[in-house]
Amino acid sequence: MLVWVLTVIKNNLSPCWRRFSVPLQTFCGGDLDTPIKVKCSDHDSDGSHDLIGVFETNLTQLQKALDGCPVEFECINPEKKQKKKSYKNSGVISIKSCKIETDYSFLDYVMGGCQINFTVGIDFTGSNGDPKSPDSLHYISPDGINEYLIAIWSVGSVVQDYDTDKLFPAFGFGAQVPPSWQVSHEFALNFNPNNPYCQGIQGIVDAYRQILPQIRLYGPTNFSPIINHVARFAAHSAQQRTASQYFVLLIITDGEITDLDQTRQAIVNASKLPMSIIIVGVGEADFKAMEFLDGDSGVLKSLTGEPAARDIVQFVPFRQFRNAPREALSQVVLAEVPKQLVSYYKLQGWPPMKLPEIKKM
Ligand SMILES: *[C@@H]1O[C@H](CO)[C@@H](O)[C@H](O)[C@H]1NC(C)=O
Ligand SMILES: *[C@@H]1O[C@H](CO)[C@@H](O)[C@H](O)[C@H]1NC(C)=O
User: Fold this and answer.
1) Ligand minimally distant from the alpha carbon of residue 65
2) I need a surface site. Which of 79, 177, 254, 346 has the fewest CB within 10 A?
């Protein structure tokens, strides 16, 4: 069975082939001792390739090739070997490196002990409208809800299953807050900067309801401070070089962003960290800027042209889900996070912290 054909390297007596990857099942049927025959020929454009030599090996042997410690094989041409007594070989093939890499799933990481740190950021800028007025996006209806609260519930109730302590840091941005009445772009929803944790999703909801009458909605709408805030924790956690903690920042906003360029930079920086950003847009605004951040028009780049290392932003307009069951919103909102988590750890080469035990027969 033919497993792989390397590309022809022309006019070179000492060719160096590029690395390739092939599923283990295709390569050797999953059995490391399956004999693998390697044939090396001189390419002829008319198709009559001349055999240089062959050797046989198996994956057990090939795996001994690690970076900086190649494994060498003599290429033997059987005809030449028969003809000439002094024949040694027709060249040596050196395998520079051979690795078996496992593809892990989101569940492998979560079961392996990866914690999801879920942080919520809420837009308290003036463009939302006065919370006391029924037109405001922050207006809490007589039955106790608004789009901000529904978004927190829908997303939070799914995410909290992956978070063992169920303590969620929650922040607001864009309001004037007491006692100084300065505009803040990252204030703890419970007014406790040293301990911004809310107990469960209910805790976030309670803190939101309590803080609303105590602050003045203002502006501008800056996203970058809260993204950078979470990114600092993500950067610190990444220093451990294990798949122990992944950060998900949920930003709920009316979409009228002021600091687009700083936010682009913040996202590009965060794309190198164990972090994803979900933006839920409430209200009827034009969400072009949010779609841009989502990378809908190609890879997001910073103002200086640096591209994001990977896609970490998912934007969802709430209005599309107004009449849908709540699960529909959470499903769409969280669709990308598992892929983003796996892609980050794969890029880093970090396996789950604990692997499921392989049962011995
Ligand atoms: C695997 O291949 C090596 C040569 O590359 C050989 O020495 C060894 O006996 C082979 N192992 C098995 C189980 O066939
Ligand atoms: C989770 O991230 C937030 C920042 O968004 C931070 O305040 C909190 O300490 C983190 N929690 C853990 C357990 O690292």
Assistant:
1) 1
2) 79
- Give the count of beta carbons closer than 10 Å to the beta carbon of residue 247: 24
Cβ of 34 less than 6 Å from ligand 1: no
pLDDT digits over 170-190, tens only? 999 999 999 999 999 999 999
C-alpha to C-alpha distances, 43 to 18, 47, 73, 141, 187, nearest whole angstrom: 17, 7, 20, 76, 68
User: Judging by DSSP bridges, how do beta strands 245-253 and 115-123 pair with one another?
Assistant: parallel
% of the chain at pLDDT higher than 90? 78
33 Cβ below 6 A of ligand 1: yes
Q: Examine the pLDDT at 324 and tell me if it is beyond 90.
A: no
Out of 187, 227, 233, 247, give the residue to mutate to test ligand 2, the one with the largest number of ligand atoms within 8 Å of its CB.
233
Residue 233, ligand 2, Cβ within 6 A: yes
Residue nearest to atom 5 of ligand 2 (CA): 230
DSSP string, 299-354: S-B-TTSPBPSS--EEEEEGGGGTTS-HHHHHHHHTSSHHHHHHHHHHHHTPPPSS
Is the confidence at residue 358, as pLDDT, over 70?
Answer: no
Q: Where are the domains of the chain?
A: 24-95, 106-348
Q: Please say if the pLDDT value at position 357 is more than 80.
A: no
Find the 57 Cα to ligand 1 centroid distance in Å. Answer: 6
- Return the CATH number of the domain spanning residue range 106-348: 3.40.50.410
pLDDT in tens, 118-131: 999 999 999 999 99
| Sign of the torsion angle spanned by Cα atoms 288, 293, 296, 299 | positive
